[in-house]
Recover the amino acids of this structure.
C-alpha cells in the first residue's frame, strides 16, 4: 500500500504553519476526503463548507480574507500546503484526542448520509477504492475484511476512528 504521506515535506509545512507531524497527517486525511475528484487541490468555492465540516466557524468576511491570504496566485485552487496554512490559523492549540475525534466525527457524517451511526461496506469500498487507487479487487477485499473485524458488513464511528488514526505499516 502506498504511503499517503510520502509526498509531504513535513519540515517545510511545520516551518510554515507550526503544526506537528500528527496534525499534518490528520489534515492530509481530511484533505484527501474532501478532494473527491483526486485533483490534489480543493476549490475555493467549497472553502466555507470544508471549514465548517472540520469544525471551524469562519464568517463570510473571514473566509474572504483567508482566501486572499492563502490563495496568493488567485487560482481559486487550494493545494495541500495552503490547506495546512488555512487550518493552522484556526488550530490555536495542539488538537487533543477529543478535537481529532470531533473532526473525524464530521468526516464520518459525510459518509453516514442517513445518520444511522455506521458506514456500509459498500460505501467504504468506494471510499477506499478512491483513496488508495489503483487497487485490485483482491487487495480491496483484503482491506475491507481487515477493517470489518466483526464481520458486520458495516463500520461504526469507533472503527472509523481507529482506521483513520492507525499509521500504515
Amino acid at each position: 500500500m502506498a504511503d499517503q504521506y510520502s509526498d509531504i515535506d513535513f519540515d517545510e509545512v511545520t516551518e510554515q504553519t507550526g503544526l506537528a507531524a500528527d496534525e499534518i497527517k490528520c489534515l492530509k486525511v481530511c484533505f484527501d476526503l474532501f478532494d473527491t475528484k483526486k485533483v490534489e487541490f480543493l476549490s475555493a468555492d467549497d472553502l466555507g463548507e470544508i471549514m465548517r465540516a472540520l469544525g471551524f466557524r469562519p464568517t463570510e468576511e473571514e473566509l474572504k480574507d483567508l482566501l486572499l491570504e492563502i490563495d496568493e496566485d488567485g487560482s481559486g485552487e487550494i493545494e495541500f500546503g495552503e490547506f495546512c496554512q488555512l487550518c493552522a490559523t484556526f488550530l490555536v492549540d495542539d488538537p487533543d484526542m477529543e478535537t481529532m475525534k470531533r473532526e473525524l466525527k464530521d468526516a464520518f457524517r459525510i459518509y453516514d448520509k442517513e445518520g444511522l451511526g455506521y458506514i456500509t461496506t459498500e460505501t467504504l469500498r468506494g471510499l477506499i477504492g478512491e483513496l488508495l487507487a489503483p487497487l485490485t479487487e483482491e487487495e480491496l477485499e483484503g482491506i475491507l475484511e481487515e477493517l470489518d473485524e466483526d464481520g458486520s458488513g458495516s463500520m461504526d464511528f469507533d472503527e472509523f476512528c481507529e482506521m483513520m488514526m492507525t499509521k500504515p505499516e
Observations:
- The CA atoms of residues 39 and 67 lie 19 Å apart.
- The two ends are 9 Å apart (CA to CA).
- The longest helix spans residues 97-111.
- The chain is about 55% helix and 5% strand.
